[in-house]
Amino acid sequence: MPSTARPTSQSPTGESREPAPSWSRRRWLQSTGAASALAVMPSLQAQPASAAAEEAQAPPMPAVGSVLNLPRITLLDGRVVDPAGTAGKPLLLYWWSSTCPFCAQQSPSMDQFWQAQKGRGLQMVALSIDKKPEDAQAYLARKGYQFPAAWASPDWRKSFPKPKGLPITLLRGREGRLLLAERGQMFAEDVEAMAQLL
């Protein structure tokens, strides 16, 4: 397995320098072909057994540049996210599950990103596909995450199906079109880099 050590460059004096901000472990893994597990493994391992059939029929990732319309959904805290209220604002959608090990790695970065960017107008909905909303609520309380979360029930997912894989990260721009669509775990630096798209 290739090393994931962060590469550095050297100055003319021989001192190590940090790489350019555009570098990321995820992009490096993708360039070597080692990132296939990030896209494939979540869809095979992270889904509850009851969701296996649904996952097999899941649609592909939406294309960057496509229009993304989120249906009305009630958050776990009782607030309602109305599509009209998200118009003209960047919207981050994060599909996750309390049983997904890849989500467990990414969620801390997503919570930090939400806290850092909500002042810039960022809207966020973390869409749990847990078997019950109580499972998602208990997990969020245990971890102390503050990002807005909703339980994406099987009935709700009929109108807004989850793409294949988990976690899924979609960033919609102010114009209503997708700026980013990622399947599989994003590293912390990749999550932070989304700020450049807002």
Summary tags:
198 residues; alpha/beta; Glutaredoxin; two-stranded antiparallel sheet; 9 strands; 17% strand; globular; disordered N terminus
Task: Please describe what this structure looks like.
- The protein has 198 residues and is of the alpha/beta class.
- It has one domain (20-197): Glutaredoxin (3-Layer(aba) Sandwich), CATH 3.40.30.
- Helices cover 33% and strands 17% of the residues.
- It has a 5-stranded mixed β-sheet, with helices on one face.
- Strand 8 and strand 9 (178-183) form a beta hairpin.
For the record, the CATH architecture stands as 3-Layer(aba) Sandwich
Structural class by SSE content: alpha/beta
Fourth CATH level, the homologous superfamily:
Glutaredoxin
CATH topology: Glutaredoxin
Please tell me what the overall shape is: globular
Order of helices and strands: EEHHHEEHEHEHEHEEH
Distance between the termini: 35 Å
Summarize, please.
This protein is α/β, with parallel strands linked by helices. The protein is 33% helix and 17% strand. The chain has a 5-stranded mixed beta sheet with strand order 7-6-5-8-9, covered by helices on one side. The protein has a two-stranded antiparallel ribbon with strand order 1-2.
SSE arrangement:
Blueprint: E1 9-10, E2 16-17, H1 25-32, H2 36-45, H3 52-56, E3 73-74, E4 80-81, H4 83-86, E5 91-96, H5 101-117, E6 123-128, H6 133-143, E7 149-151, H7 154-157, E8 168-172, E9 178-183, H8 188-193
Parallel strand pairs: 5-6, 6-7
Antiparallel strand pairs: 1-2, 3-4, 5-8, 8-9
